[in-house]
Amino acid sequence: MSVLKTKFCEGISDISDSYAAFVIDQWGVLHNGEEPYEGVIDCLKHLKERKKQIIILSNSGKRAEENKERLKSLGIGPSLYTDIVTSGEITWQGLHDQKDGVFKDIGHKCFLMSRGGDRSIIAGLDIEVVDDIQDADFLMISGTDAPEKTLVDYYEPILKAAIRRRLKAVCANPDSRALIGDGYVMGPGMIARRYQDFGGVVHYIGKPHAPIFQHCIKMLQERDIYPGQTVMIGDTMAHDIIGAAAVNIDTCLVKTGLHHGSFAKCTNPTEVDHALNILTLQYHNIRPNYLVDVMKWGKALPDRKHKKRS
C-alpha cells in the first residue's frame, strides 16, 4: 500500500489552481485570538480574486454572526470569505428545531458550561438555563472557565451528578485545548471526554466529527463543487486533518497553531519530515497532503518570534 507523500509548500499559491473551494480553520490558521497571522489577509484576497469558495470552519461554541464580528475586529472582513460554519451555529439550529438526531425532543431545561457565563448558544431559544444540575433536561458544554475553574475541583462534581441523572450531554466545541493569546487552557472537549470516562453519553458537534464536514460539503455541492475539488487548511491533526481526510477532502497543515512546537526546532526539510512522521504515527497514520509554514500566498515568511492563537 502506497504511503501519502506530503508536499512541502512555500505558500497557498502552490495549490490554489488545484481546488475550487478552501475550508479554513480559524484559530491557529487565520489568527491567534488577538491578531491575524502575517500574510493571511493578503492570501485571502488572492483566493477571492481567483473566485475560490472560502468556508471558515470553526469549533467555536459561538454562533456564526458572533464569529463574523470577531473576525471583522481583527481586520478579516466578510468580503474575504464566502461563509462561516461553526459548531455553535449548528448546535443553535438543532436546539431551535429539536427535530433530528441528537436534538430530537432534547428538552427545554439546560445546564450550561460556557466561558464567562456566555449564553449566546441558546440566546433567542425556548431554552431555560438552570443553576442546579438536578433541574436539567440535558447538559450543554460549549466552553470552560479554565484555568480559574479546574476539572477536578469544579467540573467533575457536576459531571458526577449529571451521570446519576443519566443526562445526555452535547459538546458544542470538541477542542481539548483553547488557545488564548500565547498560551493554552483546558478546552470543552476535555470536560466532555471526562463525562464519557464516567460513563456518560456525549454528542459532539464539530471537528473532527463527520456531520460538520458534511454540512460544508452540502453547501459546496449546491454550488457544483465536490470533495475532490476541496482542500481543508488547518493547524490540528486531531480535528482538521483527520476529520477532513475521513470525508475524502484533501488537507493542508500549517505550522502555526497547535503543532508549532513540533516544528519549532527543525532547520531543514529532513528534520521537518521527521517531525511530521512523528505526528502521523500519533494520529492514526493520517498524513496531510500539504504542509506550509503559515497561511501566506507566496514564499514563507522570514523567521520571527512566534505568536499564538485561541
What does this protein structure show overall?
The protein has 310 residues and is α/β, with parallel strands linked by helices. The chain has a domain at 55-229: 3-Layer(aba) Sandwich (Rossmann fold), CATH 3.40.50. Helices cover 31% and strands 18% of the residues. It has 9 helices and 14 strands. The chain has helices at residues 40-49, 64-73, 87-97, 151-164, 188-197, 210-221, 237-246, 260-263, 269-282; strands at residues 7-9, 21-25, 53-58, 83-86, 109-113, 128-129, 138-141, 168-171, 177-180, 183-186, 202-204, 230-234, 250-254, 290-292. A 7-stranded parallel beta sheet has the order 1-14-13-12-2-3-4, sandwiched between helices. The protein is globular, with a radius of gyration of 19 Å. Residues 303-310 have low confidence and may be disordered.
Oligomeric status:
single chain
CATH level 1 class label of the domain at 55-229: Alpha Beta
Rg (C-alpha, Å): 19 Å
Cα-to-Cα separation, first versus last residue: 38 Å
Q: By CATH's scheme, which homologous superfamily of the domain at 55-229 applies?
A: HAD superfamily/HAD-like
Level-2 CATH architecture of the domain at 55-229: 3-Layer(aba) Sandwich
